[in-house]
Design brief:
Elements: H1 6-12, E1 15-17, E2 27-29, H2 41-47, H3 59-70, E3 79-83, H4 89-96, E4 100-105, H5 108-120, E5 125-129, E6 142-146, H6 152-167, E7 171-176, E8 186-195, E9 205-213
Helix pairs in contact: 1-5, 3-4
Length: about 220
């Protein structure tokens, strides 16, 4: 899909709604009334897009956003990276309370969604569409990421980079709703009962913990 068509695709296939537990913000999200809610592989191939993970407010990103909004001093004035940002909920929350926010995704459609969501909430978020792990630690103060421990290859790809970031002095926080491949040795800093959809999960609520990664 040509880059200039990406924002229109996002707008045409989502609704503007507030995520669960985060009524302060609005995002372009898939709902029961939008085509992406029941999108098939054929639909996605026809439009030339990856699975639309960006179109859902996942429990991890909701927990991070709630942690930020409940105590803005945690990130105000700091450089905050929302890694594997999806639709950029955590980055938008950080920018809303005065952080210098950057959202990182590998999917260009997600990048377009993040830009739209930032504009929708009248904040500035720097968007990076790239695969950063394997490179140097990011030059930020805080790195947040949610719901990334769903597969062993993902954790093996991501964890060494996150540990390098922590060793370089970055505050690294992972939000996890009970996925199978969460690494050991993390310090819990908060937990939330996050409402979820049966279309995406096997239950109605996910206990989601925010965890600090030590170097």
């Amino acid at each position: 899909m040509p880059p200039e068509d990406l924002p229109r695709f996002v707008r045409d296939h989502t609704q503007v709604v507030a995520p669960p537990l985060v009524p302060e913000l609005r995002l372009h999200l898939a709902t029961e009334l939008t085509p992406l809610w029941t999108a098939t592989e054929l639909f996605l191939r026809r439009h030339g897009v990856e699975p639309p993970y960006w179109a859902f407010a996942w429990p991890g990103s909701i927990a991070v956003a709630r942690w930020i909004l409940d105590d803005p001093a945690r990130v105000r004035g700091r450089r905050v990276m929302d890694f594997a940002a999806g639709g950029g909920l955590a980055a938008v929350a950080a920018a809303r309370v005065g952080a210098r926010a950057v959202a990182v995704e590998i999917d260009p459609v997600a990048g377009a969604a993040i830009r739209l969501n930032a504009a929708l909430n009248d904040v500035e978020v720097q968007v990076v569409v790239d695969d950063l792990p394997g490179g140097p630690p990011p030059e930020v103060d805080v790195l947040v990421t949610g719901d990334v421990c769903y597969s062993r290859p993902m954790v093996d790809h991501l964890l060494p980079w996150l540990r390098r970031a922590a060793a370089a002095g970055v505050e690294v926080l992972l939000a996890d709703p009970g996925r199978a491949y969460l690494p050991d040795g993390l310090e819990e800093v908060g937990r939330w009962e996050v409402p979820v959809s049966r279309e995406l999960e096997d239950r109605d609520v996910r206990l989601t913990r925010l965890l600090r990664l030590r170097a």
